[in-house]
Amino acid sequence: MSRSNLFIALEGIDGSGKSTQSKLLAETLTDMGHKVYTTFEPTDSRIGVMIRDIFSHRMEGDHRVIAALFVADRLNHLLNSQDGILKKLDEGYTVITDRYYFSSYAYHSAHMDMDWVIKVNALSAELLRPDLNIYIDISPEVSMERINKGRTSVEMYETLENLTVVSQKYQQAFELLSDVEKIVKIDGNRHADVIAEEIKQQVMSLM
Hints:
Layout: E1 7-11, H1 18-31, E2 36-40, H2 46-55, H3 63-79, H4 85-90, E3 94-98, H5 101-108, H6 114-120, H7 122-127, E4 132-137, H8 140-148, H9 160-176, E5 183-187, H10 192-204
Parallel strand pairs: 1-3, 1-4, 2-3, 4-5
Helix pairs in contact: 1-10, 2-3, 5-9, 8-9
């Protein structure tokens, strides 16, 4: 796909600040005159709602089922004829997503084989790799502090033990795929504005 607009994926364990940085980056690029579309995974489609129901314990779901649902949700996220990522890119938008397939590689491989997770997401990777994967790096301990602050409940993956493994799996996936993916790691322990400026510089270097 030949285009001047970008597809940017923000990654990180829970509480890393992805949503905040997605919003700040979108505002910055919009102010600079770019058309920007922000999105997230799991999506708000019917498949995404099922995933969120499992996460919040309203519905039962095996880890393998969750991984498969993410595959379906992601393909719909890419291919939906109304507001799919590929459609938005074709329309000239720079697309910023809060999570993409590296989240699956990290979170699902905490419970099953990473090679399998990568293989079942292969079609998404073939359809569209991010121009830039931005990993906002925080410790699992900081993650839990942020999750627990002002929250009355936590989702199924939001435990210190699980997030410690997920953090390690992110690094494993990055090392495994460093030859085919553009990955930048950002220190997420600083003020949001400082993080946003570094992300802006990374994105601008591609434009």
